[in-house]
Amino acid sequence: MDKNVQDKAWQDGTLGEQPDAKDRLMERARTGEKMENFAIANGDYSHINLVNRTSKTGYQLHNADCYHSDFNHAHCFKLDLSGSSLMKADFSFANLHCANLTGCNLLGTNFKGAKLEHVIWGDYALQEQQANNAKSIDEKLDLYQQAEEVYRNLRLVSEKQGLFEVAGTFFQREMVMRRKQMPLWSINRIISKIVDMFCGYGELPMRVVAFTWSVLISFTFLFFFSGLIYNGEVIAYNAQASFSENVDQLLSCAYFSIVTFTTLGYGDITPTGLSRVLAAIEALFGSFTLALFVVVFVKKMTR
Fold first, then answer.
1. pTM over 0.90
2. What's the pLDDT tens digit per position in 253-299?
3. DSSP per residue over 57-119, as a string?
């Protein structure tokens, strides 16, 4: 059968309904040519071998309809399934190592016991991308709910396989999807957004570090212009002083900002006027941020 005619039969679902569809699909894949829009829904492809052993790249099965198909124990090493619908497909105990699942519909997909090391998942679930482009509120909420379910499923599967970094990424996206289902200006949504900004729901400790540096630098300049007291002399910006003298004053303000943030409070430099209010605010930021960093760090290290 001519390849174009054969591919047309795959695309309209004719070959996917045949009893020998699994053998035919393996034979078609071995040609090494891209497979586009194949309709193979509800098919039995268990134990199928779709590994391209003669190349460093895998076979390409793009935009395929694999709805409710059985791929349990399938060999799909480096298989490129990008854009495919894997909704309710069964990939239990399949080898998906290094497979490309970018843009796939993974709602209800069964990955129990599957090998998922180095799978390319893409940045966002398909439902999340669709929700961002949806026009009606009801459609957005439904898609965000589906995306949350997808991320939760992937998180649980990744955790069971010890892929904790990947699981952490899915957990963060899961929480974002949950937040976006809340009323826009509700207290819970605002709190959730703040937690995301500060630490990515406990998955991004570097956000805590970045916030720490932003607070230290910001308050350094605030103290520099509001003024501090050291041995009865004012530490502040002086337009009449030289550049080096102002730099020295700025470094003193940086020192005070650090000891205030960490609540050490040596007492050698003291705030005055507006600086007293600023010092109190920075001390509160410091107490909260240091505690948050410890929690996030311990969570990441004890997984």
1. no
2. 999 999 999 988 788 899 998 999 999 999 999 999 988 888 887 77
3. S--BEET-B-TT-B-TT-B-TT-B-TT-B-TT-B-TT-B-TT-B-TT-B-TT-B-TT-B-TT-
